[in-house]
Amino acid sequence: MCGGAPDHDVIVRALWANAVRLCERLATGKPAGMNVRHDWTVNEAEALIARPFHDLLFEAHACHRELHDPQVVEAAMLLSVKTGACPEDCAYCPQSAKWNTDLEPARLMPAEEIVASARSAQASGATRFCMGAAWRAPNDRQVEEVAVAVEAVGALGMETCVTLGMLTDEQATRLAGAGLDFYNHNLDTSPEFYGEIITTRTYEDRLETLANVRDAGVKLCCGGIVGMGESRRDRAGLLVQLARLDPQPESVPINLLVQVPGTPLHGTDELDPLELVRTIAAARLMMPESVVRLSAGRSQMTDELQALCLHAGASSIFLGDRLLTTANPGDDHDRDLLGRLDVDLAVLEGDAR
Ligand code: SF4
Fold it and tell me: What is the pLDDT of residues 257-296, one digit of tens each?
């Protein structure tokens, strides 16, 4: 038996939480957690992140099990289809033309090359193919070229996602017409910290693109980055912005900053890894139906940290050894880790592989 008596308050809180869930399930016929809140305050979110670690993880994992299968992880693959030379000044990004990094810029790939990459991603178990282009805002011709690729990748039977920067409502409608499943556009951080990270586009610009995408009927992939020198309150502020979107984003990537030499954030103090776990747990509780993705930064995480993040409610990862322009653990390592955790990769409905 473990040493020391269990804390009485913790047991009472756990029993109470279970009782509440059971009552909700009996009253509504639905699993608890379906009652999604859009009125989170920053104070509430900050208090949630600050809860005793084991209480927070217990609640987050219990919430996760209500609506998601803890033995399944979604796998996506992210390809940079147009690299570098971006006019924006995102302080974390090696693709900004403003920073002196080693990155080699590349024009938009032809659709055939994109589809060939999607085929190989599918063969390695990815069900979603994400295409990223380093643009501030694409022009209509560029959107048209991407739409052609989206249609072709969708025809393989994969979910499609693109991230192209700011979109007009007409452009969002064109991509929806091509069958695009998800559009990625991150809020990055809290509105208060945002100005420390980006000055070339506003928080409102981002929210407008999210609204255009949502109005076109495309699902949202929207999250942020931790470890950029922000405070816990900023992490709470980011989660509040995401949770207040109605509907909440279907996909919520939580990225850990990858510090790239030459970018202004290179040399930032490292975030305590348990803060990442707390942020994911709070995201799970505040957005119970969303799929939380443990996104960039996995190469610098231990397997044990990744396991904790999955326990806290993350259930999606990117496969492959590159994530746009930075390193990712690679399929072999991921399969080994997921095997050790008794976790399978998700398959799409109707996919017999
Ligand atoms: S994050 Fe996107 S918008 Fe910002 S500099 Fe990089 S490619 Fe450009």
Answer: 999 999 999 999 999 999 999 999 999 999 999 999 998 8
Quote the ligand 1 centre to 249 CA distance (angstroms).
20
Question: What CATH number labels 67-345?
Answer: 3.20.20.70
Spell out which residues line ligand 1, taking CB within 6 angstroms.
86, 88, 90, 93, 95-96, 134, 165
Alpha carbon distance 76, 318 (integer Å): 5
The pLDDT confidence band at residue 329, using thresholds 50, 70 and 90, is confident
* Strand residues in 195-324 grouped as ranges (E): 219-221, 224-226, 251-256, 291-294, 314-318, 322-323
Q: For strand 314-318 and strand 322-323, is the pairing parallel, antiparallel, or unpaired?
A: unpaired
Cα 325 to Cα 83: distance, rounded to the nearest angstrom:
8
Rounded to whole angstroms, how far apart are CA atoms 271 and 230? 9
Residues 147, 130, 117, 88: is their CA dihedral positive or negative? positive
pTM: 0.85
261: CB partners within 8 A, 6+ apart:
101, 102
Burial class (CB in 10 A: 0-12, 13-18, 19+), 342: exposed
Ligand 1 pocket check: which of 79, 82, 83, 88 to mutate, most ligand atoms within 8 Å of Cβ?
A: 88
Tell me 68's DSSP state: S
Closest residue by Cα to atom 4, ligand 1, is: 90
Which are the catalytic amino acids? 86, 90, 93, 130, 161, 221, 293
